[in-house]
Amino acid sequence: MIISLTGLFCIILFILAIRFMATPKTANMGNYLAIISMMMAIIISFSPLPENYLWLLSAIFFGAIVGIFFGEKIKITELPQMIAILNGLGGGAATCIAMAEANIFDQSSTISLLGGIIGAITLSGSFIAFCKLQGIMKKRKIFASSAIVNICFLLIMTLAVFFIDKQSFMVDIIFCIALVWGGFMVYPVGGADMPIIISILNSFSGWATVAIGFSYSNILMITVGTIVGASGSILAYIMIKSMNKSLLKLFIQSDLLKTEDVTEKIPNEGSPKDAAFIMESAKNIIIVPGYGMAAASAQYAIKSMADILEKKYKINVKFAIHPVAGRMPGHMNVLLADAGVDYEKVFELDDINSEFSETDVVYVIGANDITNPEAKTNHDSPLYGMPVLDVGKAKVVFFVKRSLNTGYSGVDNPLFFAPNTIMLYGDAKKITEDINKILEQ
Amino acid sequence: MDNFTILLTFFAMACFIGYFVVWGVTPALYSPLMSVSNAISGIVILGAITNGNDWWGIFAAFLASVNIFGGFSVSRRMLAMFRRGEKNK
Description:
The complex is a heterodimer. Chain A is an alpha/beta fold. Chain A has three domains: 1-73, no CATH class; 77-252, no CATH class; 272-440, TPP-binding domain (Rossmann fold, 3-Layer(aba) Sandwich), CATH 3.40.50.1220. Helix content of chain A is 59%, strand content 7%. In chain A, helix 14 links the parallel strand 2 and strand 3 (346-348). The longest helix of chain A is centred in the N-terminal third of the chain and has 27 residues, at 79-105. The radius of gyration of chain A is 25 Å and the shape is elongated. Helix content of chain B is 79%, strand content 0%. By secondary structure, chain B is an all-alpha fold. The chains are: A alpha/beta, B mainly alpha.
């Protein structure tokens, strides 16, 4: 009775924990509630004492050491990788549990087999995502048959779940196939689609938990797993909407978009000196960060730029963030928070988009596709329909980029050639620091 | 109600709760949300604990434990950054 009531209490705490994630003021509390409730859940599951509890305790203990070690040591720039790999471990745990169950009873239930399959896909998919984020796997190869491959795997898995004799040996084979599938699923997906993939893998680790929960009739696992699954699914939905993609297109896209004839127009090129000069006389400035800021770790330089502009020149500085900027949902917000930018100065797309027409200077750092006006005007553009930041409406736009190359979508950005655009070529951090030096003089 | 129906009821209710609670989260906190939900998906460890007499079960406990502690520690660090932004005001 006490045990099951504590379980109920844990569920309530977990729900409150996610509820507290709603605002930055309460989010810390939410994290601690989740920790307390997790500890309680683990403690009550040790009563009555399970078999081999010493081994289990030491496994948990070493897991905790490894987890905390990497969690504390990881660099802020490596956060997306870390989250990817942790997702994978959660899925891997589900698979191992399903295997253990099949070993012990020499027979697996349909639902735990399903949980194990989802877990295995999460594990290998996350590993590939990790390799891509870490830069180990750079090439984005697309094979025309990826749709067929995925459908074949889906068929095999469906047959396996419903028709195959679920003996321990067969179960292991099925999980191996699921591992291969997870790899194939994520392999063709490119860097800028990572926010979607990470969210999907996040939800998978939740659904795997739900399936395992069903096979053990454990309400705590089912409810908590469902909340994780829901959270990942909603994030994936938001990311897909913000990129104007469909789930189908993401996994079965079969051709790389070819850029049409490269326009012979020449963009305006500027120096940090020009940028500083124009910024000094502005009244309000909006900074638009993209993945390039993360790649160059330029957030600290950006923060000091905002400080100088505000304190010395009394300019109103705001930040505008596109939902899919970066490699995971909310990536830019975390980086800016890390640099010490007040989150009340950071605005989401819908809240700030109308302000660009009244803005003197926009400083776009390491972003491209999310500002492309063709998404609104050109019906033939692959970006058409994607919500974009209307930076072109400002009086002057600075683009900090390493080159004039197209963004991830492979589409030219006509904004680069607009009369009110000035390109600043170079490393995002270096350029920003150079501007800061001149501004400070 | 039989056992499976009860579990299914909990599942359906949890879907609704999850839906409404998650939509309430501000976009600025999507990364920490993902990190916290990632950590609590480690609740799968309860399944590992009932499987202590198989080595795979013990290995699962290890993996889930890395997931839980790593996830919470990453979340804590991310949220601490947002607090720092608050103090700088």
